[in-house]
Description:
The protein has 28 helices and 22 strands. The protein is α/β, with parallel strands linked by helices.
Amino acid sequence: MRMVVLLLSVMMVRVLLMDAVVESTAEFDPYKVLGVTRSASQAEIKKVYKRLAKEWHPDKNKNPEAEDMFIKITKSYEILTNEEKRASYDRYGQTDNTHPYGRGHHGFRHFHDNFYFDESFFHFPFNNKGGRDFADSKYTLHFNQYISEVVPDSFKRPYLIKITSDWCFSCIHIEPVWKETVQELETLGIGIGVVDVGYERRLANNLGAHQTPSILGVVNGKVSFFHYAVVKGHLMQFIEDLLPQRLVEKVTDKNNQEFLKSWHELNKPHVLLFDQVPSVPLLYKLTAFAYKDYVQFGYVDQGLSETADLLRKFNINTYAPTMLVFKEDVEKPADIIQAKGMKKQIIDEFISNNKFLLAPRLVNQKLFDELCPVKQFHRRRKYCVLLITGEEESFATGNEAFLSLASANTNDVLRFAYVYQRRQQPLCDVLLKNKDSTLPQVDQVVILERRNGAGKILYKPVSGGWNGSKEDKHKLLEELERLQKDPSILNNDAVLPELNNEFTSMFLIRWIYTAYDYLAEIIDDLLHNNWREVMPLLSLIFSALFILFGTVVIQAFSDSSEEKQPKTKAKEASKAENVVLDITYTSNLVKLRPGHINVVLVLTDPTKNILLSKFAKEVYSFTGSFTLHFSFLNVDKHGEWMAAVLEYAQDAMQIDTDEDEAGSRKLDYTGYVLALNGHKKYLCLFKPVYTGEDLDSKPEEEGGGSRSRKGTTRSRSTTLQIHHKLDRLGLWMERLMEGTLPRYYVPAWPGLDKITVNK
């Protein structure tokens, strides 16, 4: 009886699972995706694919489902253009990887060798709505988005990124902790990202993520992996550890004056946060990281006895966090904010309004651009009142008077700043070009307005110089009042050079700090046995040592005799000429050994001699590789094969443009170079670059020989352009050896019928 029940149960499960297989395979039909019949020819399929690929390309179509549809279209095209896969689908309703989104064999598995089961039958919670968690959809990252947005933004705030996939069982277990942590981190301003390996394999490889789930952080463009148990406390600590050290200085009664008085050396306002917790809050560290280029941050622990004098001096309320900003006056804060629930938006607004000193020193071009922005509209004029002074003690009185005037300014249109003439000599030379050199050296005030980003300004020096007297102040204020009524008083124009970066000398210190952080990360990776991530670095180090050792050995044993150099060069030239061989289709492409690549130059009969000579010189340094073969292809004879192969190297967004151009004129493939991998069926493409001068622009000589000279010049110009088509081939070859070139995969190499001579 038990056997009968067991048999019936097995049969029912089998029927249910087979139904699930049928239902799941019916979800993806390449014929329905492309909208073609089962009897459609290859030409019809290719035409429909081009149209749909252009319509659903994610860069052009902003529909949220455009990316998924584009992947389905590409997958359908791969199946229907491959005879074996198409026949398998027509016969069995599936292929080895029919399931969309490239999940390979995850969908179906053998069971007792006579039926299959489909994992999607169980409807896991992470496999809804196209395989993506709805909660994670707003954080989804794409490769281009990561490169253009996340990496630059990581210099202002850290990013926490989760690597996941549709069939990741472990991802389910960390999901509650992840969601709870993300909700809290978002309020702190931390960037969140989710990378689905099934959709963004390229980005996952770029990040170095080789397993799911993985969690990593990105700060200053550098990727760091999370190695601990996925709990909220560990993730919060991981974010804090990502931030650079020395962002916030602990301030007490002993060092507060030293901290506040460094405004002159650092040319930054200083901010003090008073709070009762012993460690610096994460929100405050994140703020310090975001504004590290503008403001210096300090933290005062109210619970310490060493900070009692500071609390009394500034009358701090110990029941709520307090933030003070100090500028040139270290005894009196320029602004203050106090709140029990100090939010990120409040802090950001407070710091943004106090990013600069009252009269900062122009130390680099970036600061100049922000203080004195380029005029955009008539109602948004910004005038910069610039004091040109010196560092000597004799200039102190005038500088203090200028600072006093800047402190009293309430007009948003005016910005006050100063420069040290010795440190910004090129700038001062332009602004003081009309100054009488016989006058004694004194400060000079210049009022200027920037007109464009190229450095053009309108300006007016204030006559009489500047020594800080009441007369000088009165004269400057009169000029500023006139400027408000009549901007045309700025009657001088000039083009300013780019400012010198006065903090360049600090580069070595920053480099040491960066090297220290990087070394600490390497040690951390070694301690956690994260060899997959460390191996590229170790490989780079050993490669550099090997190259260095090899160079020393070669120099020690090489014969540097000048008499043998001509013979050596002759041998090299003959060897370079022997590199270039005509293409034998079967042996050099179809049956090319795995790992070998054939580099093919495309030419015509008229350009053959010129291009072969240039090609031999450009590729000679790569002839020592046993995996590279060099050939040439005459496009006059094999143009049909060339056009068939290059169809796979066209971008989907440019298909219509290419077809329109091809219809109006015959495409010129002369100078193209193809790197063909016959075993893996992909190619890399080099397009010629014109760098030669046009000799037609030279004046012709007069006389009876004018016509013949013109013809000669035109011929020389054509020769020069053809010769320069391969100018950048050497750089392209280096990228080919590095494996960084785009690869265009070919479902099947064109048949031998494409190699016949065109009639």
